[in-house]
Amino acid sequence: MLRINEIGWNYSHPSGMIYVDQYDEPGSYFLGLFQSPTVLVTDGKEIEVRPKGMVLFPPGSKRCFYPKERDTDPDGLWSNDFIKFHDDGDGAAEILGMITPMVPFYPERTEHISRVIKELSEIERNYIKTPEVRRLINNRLEYILLFIVVNSRDHMKTQLINVNAAVVRKIKQTRTYMLENPGQAWNISKLAEMAGVSQSYFSRLYKKIFGTTPMKDLNERRIEKAKYYFSCTVLSIKEVAYKTGFKDEYYFIHAFKAATGTTPGNYCKLHQNNDTSNVLYINEKDL
């Protein structure tokens, strides 16, 4: 779960401060949304962060930045929003891994992110941290990270996607169900219908969240399931192909070899040549 260590909304540094140069406690991330022109120093290089730019500092990194043009800020102040947080397990490691650390990025509608940070700062100040409140904080933090991942501008992107947290959760639930039932006849149309979105939107957001396409994700799961069947049952190649969703035995053999480097038959022989005295073989036709 993601937990906040410290948070600041519309935080104005003291007028005498001209530099931030510090390490955070172990395990803490620092996410900054800079409202003023700022210079980031990383690996001895200076990088300009334009207003509305964001930077993620990973655990153990040094936060080092300073105002570019103090006299352009209101009242001569240097302002930003920030969240210091840590992930104590089963959190957003996969999402955090999609954000390049120590590199400025510019999500669409940063004013929306700023409002969510304001909401979180009010929750932190005014609410007792019951399990329900902690889950709310985790969900809002995860929402911010997903919003950043999907809406960040880069030179490869030609279209921005609006993210709804409920839609993201539905897509994640759809993926879980698909991977738990790889033998079903899946296609993009069916998956998008389950998630309640259009096919094109489902495919684009799925790729952004999971880093792969739905069909490639499914194919990898089917191959892993097939390897399990070959290792722990006496099903034939044709039966395994059917149970893992490959209705064509020959297509299954081709896909299995492409994924593993060997044919299903050779995979079975390799397994049979190993010591299998501790393996219980099951004929699933008898279950």
CATH architecture of the largest domain: Sandwich
Cα Rg: 25 Å
Outline the low-pLDDT stretches. Answer: 153-160, 275-287
Number of domains: 3
The CATH topology annotation of the largest domain reads as Jelly Rolls
Percent in strands? 15-25%
Distance between the termini: 39 Å
What's the CATH first level of the largest domain?
Mainly Beta
Tell how many strands the DSSP assignment holds.
8
Structural class: alpha+beta
Put simply, the count of helices is: 10
According to CATH, the homologous superfamily of the largest domain is Regulatory protein AraC
Question: Averaging pLDDT over every residue, what do you get?
Answer: 80
Q: What is the H/E string?
A: EEEEEEEEHHHHHHHHHH
Secondary structure: helix percent: 40-55%
Question: Order of strands across the widest beta sheet?
Answer: 1-8-3-6
Shape: elongated
- Largest sheet properties: 4 strands, antiparallel
